[in-house]
Amino acid sequence: TKLRFFRDVLESDQPQKPSFELLADRFAMTVDQTTGDNVYVVEKATAVAYGKDGTETRFEADGGTFNDTTKTTQLRGHVVCTTGTQRVEMQDVIWTNETMTAATQNPVVVSDGDTKLQAASMEYNTDTRALSLHSLSGAVSLAGPQAADAADGGSFQFIDITKGGLGEFVDGQLKHIDDGVAIALRPADPNAKPMQLEAKKIVFGWDAEQRTKPKSIALDGGVSVDGPQGLITASAADLNLAENSIEFSGNVHGKSDSIESFDAERINYDMKSGDSEMIGLVARGIKLGAPGGEAKSGAADFSSMNIERAGRVVSSGGQVKTMSGG
């Protein structure tokens, strides 16, 4: 026997397909003591929710209740929700047919291949395939058949989320994290230092043909990035993983191995070559000579210099090459 919900509006003259189906080993009718509604109580429940495009989301649970008046179903005990390769484990979930959502206010564990996440609560919309996770933490795998080679400077294998207010996945891809975010991009080389990023909001951009690795990461508000370019704070930053570069803009401040401290309007940095372009630069304690700070043979014995103001500064290999502008 199946218990079913349907959408309220018929979209064609064809026989209507259910939006939600519930199957169980045992059914029993009872009265909800809070609402007075007649509800079915079920044991060993299996359910399927159907998105507008026919995508199936499956649920398994120890038991639950089916309320045809409110068009809601509550599943309890060892609940597992699967859609595609993504799996969400929780202790309870409520299906609301009006909004086509499954939600819980209790902790969840999300897994998808090597991706392992934890969150304080969850909401999933079967029509949009959007999974919202609150107080998100864990690791998102970037590995896949099209992942970058380990020799490539952009070969990050995991996004480690150490602080995430609200994260949203759509069709299995991480789209954005809001409300204060701290992540680390973990390289393929286990001996390499992870790149640390913090911002109020981080947005991930994807190519249609690339399922496992984002092409870009945009950081907005209270940005801090600790990586090969040094420790830099700014209003915004855009990390281009396809070109292996990062751009900082708005109230840029920072320090690096070759510069004691600096302020700039904008910085473009090539993470593979180490080349950079700084616009509106004011810098203090720029090391002269070789990148390590030692003076070159025959050079004047100056250990560092300051830049009071430069419109454009181009550096290569940690050394200033050209300065121009006022």
Q: Which characteristics define this entry?
A:
single chain, 326 residues, mainly beta, 22-stranded antiparallel sheet, 22 strands, 0% helix, elongated
Brief synopsis:
The relative contact order is 0.07. It is built from no helices and 22 strands.
Protein described:
With 326 residues, the protein is mainly β. Helix content is 0%, strand content 65%. The chain is built from no helices and 22 strands. The protein has a 22-stranded antiparallel sheet that branches. Strand 19 and strand 20 form a beta hairpin. The chain is elongated, with a radius of gyration of 26 Å. About 3% of the residues have low confidence.
Layout: helices, strands, pairs:
Blueprint: E1 2-5, E2 20-31, E3 38-50, E4 56-67, E5 72-83, E6 86-96, E7 101-104, E8 108-112, E9 115-119, E10 121-125, E11 130-141, E12 156-170, E13 173-187, E14 195-199, E15 201-205, E16 216-227, E17 230-240, E18 245-255, E19 259-270, E20 276-287, E21 304-316, E22 319-324
Antiparallel strand pairs: 1-2, 2-3, 3-4, 4-5, 5-6, 6-7, 6-8, 7-10, 8-9, 9-11, 10-11, 11-12, 12-13, 13-14, 13-15, 14-16, 15-16, 16-17, 17-18, 18-19, 19-20, 20-21, 21-22
